[in-house]
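Translate structure to sequence.
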């Protein structure tokens, strides 16, 4: 019913930037909170950032506050994650997610396929 397709991952040096995109489609997309999770090797999947389609709500994990910015384009039904000042510990597979009523891992209904972000030291 909802499809999420991520893009924009890659290899970057520490201190660099990447911009991830999540193209969302489906009749019920507007019902969901949107955001990003990430999972590093051997680690649990963790919350990164969330947004609603009105733009009235954004929330970030403490580990990325001040460095990452989540945004969206309603006309394109696309969510973005601008990642600046990247650190090696940001290395992970990043997943776009749609959840209701809250963007917590227990309430995620749809996941993207993931995009790899690798930050070299």
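Result:
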């Amino acid at each position: 019913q909802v499809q999420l397709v991520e893009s924009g991952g890659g290899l970057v040096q520490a201190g660099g930037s990447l911009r991830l995109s999540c193209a969302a489609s489906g009749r019920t997309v507007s019902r969901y909170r949107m955001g990003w999770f990430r999972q590093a090797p051997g680690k649990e999947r963790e919350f990164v950032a969330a947004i609603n389609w009105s733009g009235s709500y954004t929330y970030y994990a403490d580990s990325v506050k001040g460095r990452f910015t989540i945004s969206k384009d309603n006309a394109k039904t696309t969510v973005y994650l601008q990642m600046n000042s990247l650190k090696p510990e940001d290395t992970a597979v990043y997943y776009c997610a749609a959840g209701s009523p809250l963007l917590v891992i227990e309430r995620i209904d749809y996941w993207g396929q993931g995009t790899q972000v690798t930050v070299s030291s």
